[in-house]
Amino acid sequence: MSDVTQRTGQTSAVPGLGYRELEESSYDAGYLEHPEHEELLTLNFGPHHPATHGVLRLITTLEGEVIRDLKPVIGYVHTGIEKNCEDKAYWKVIPLVERMDYLSYYFNAMAYCGAVETLLDIDVPPRAQYLRVAHLELNRIASHLLWLATGGLDLGAMSVFFYGWRDRDQILDLFEMSSGQRMHPRYFQVGGVAEDVPAGWVKKVKAFTATFPKRLDQYADLIDNNQLLLQRLRGTNIVDKDTLLQLGVTGPLLRAAGNPWDLRKAHPYSSYDHFDFKIPIGTVGDNYDRYRVRMAEMRESVKIIDQALDGLPDGDYITNNRKYALPPRHELATSMEALIHHFKLVTEGFRVPPGEAYYPIESPRGELACFVRSDGSSKPARVHMRDPSFVNLQSLKVMTEGEYVADMIIALAMLDPILGGIDR
């Protein structure tokens, strides 16, 4: 007689529950009818700490260590930024949208300013366009470096984590020099940029672009010569390009599967058609291709930055239409008209003709777009972001089904989601 029978006087394999009670239990009866489900276990991974990829919860169904189902749960950092934008003057919306995808702040501002400029039908001076491109590509490298650092940490590669933060910090120093802020600088303005770059900034950027390719070689040596990392990257979480397209996935994830879609080439904006660069693509669509594509993208960003600074045009850094841009500070003491424009812009803002515009750009995570609808007032009637992290997250289920739990961790890292952009 088993210990259970001795204690309860019953012969059930379940302590305290007889055979008759077991048959009457709907849950256990169903469990017995479907013995193939006996090995399934549902676990909560998360909500993760904000210091990881963001506050994300993954409801995962496991059979042993193999994933059979995965459901992402989002909304933990919902801020209502888009709704708050409707209560701000157009030019005061910029600090809000920068904090959606908080690693791609220049891209958020670019998409929003581009949509407003489309509604206003104003031209951005060539110098401002080139300065925007230089800052966008620096921001792309900074975002990819943080992905590389945290992704390396998820794989147990501590050295990559420290080196990635080191090089990213150099870019933040350049942002601080040009705009006064390391993150969320509010440097992009409707009609151009807030101010011209200071003396010596171009020289420091050129010094960075001269040394950074060697840093990328060091990263490649650390990862490509590590057999443990390669075994976890190669042949894992494969998704073909047709499936990704059906899910609306864009950016490095789609290009890693072999589709070269990149808005900088497909629909150039802010003078990207003036620069010579390549679109890296993969062949298999596994985690290794995702890693190699982002590494190659950083090299191409260096080329774009060098071309933008070498060909930086002379002229204005923002539109000279004083109805939409703050006048130079030195004019306020001598020009009544400049003082009036300054007062009106700061207190009320500018009015935008009724209409709507959708402005897509290529962010580090894929197609980022801003939709703005105007009702003719000085505040937008609607601001909505098409955030690539939100769309790309649905591919995590496809990537992980049939894979091991360990592969789910690296798939999430290679997805590079930013939950601030997902929740908004």
Describe the structure.
- The chain is mainly alpha-helical and 424 residues long.
- The chain has one domain: Cytochrome-c3 Hydrogenase, chain B (Orthogonal Bundle).
- 49% of the residues lie in helices and 11% in strands.
- The chain has 19 helices and 8 strands.
- It has helices at 3-8, 19-24, 26-33, 81-85, 94-97, 105-120, 126-154, 158-179, 201-224, 227-233, 241-247, 252-256, 263-266, 287-310, 336-347, 388-392, 395-400, 405-415, 419-423; strands at 40-45, 57-63, 66-73, 188-189, 192-193, 355-363, 366-374, 382-386.
- Strand 7 (366-374) and strand 8 (382-386) form a beta hairpin.
- Helix 6 runs antiparallel to helix 7 (126-154) and helix 7 (126-154) runs antiparallel to helix 14.
- The termini are far apart.
Which features would summarize this protein structure in a list?
single chain, 424 residues, Cytochrome-c3 Hydrogenase, chain B, three-stranded antiparallel β-sheet, 19 helices, globular
Could you name the CATH topology? Cytochrome-c3 Hydrogenase, chain B
Number of domain units:
1
Largest beta sheet, briefly? 3 strands, antiparallel
Strand content: 5-15%
The pLDDT mean sits at 87
Instruction: Provide the succession of SSEs.
Output: HHHEEEHHHHHEEHHHHHHHEEEHHHH
Helix content: 40-55%
Uncertain segments are: 1-35
End-to-end C-alpha gap = 61 Å
Quick one: CATH class?
Mainly Alpha
CATH architecture: Orthogonal Bundle
Strand line-up in the sheet with most strands: 1-2-3
Subunit structure: NDH-1 is composed of 14 different subunits. Subunits NuoB, C, D, E, F, and G constitute the peripheral sector of the complex.
Protein name: NADH-quinone oxidoreductase subunit D
EC number: 7.1.1.-
Enzyme class: translocase
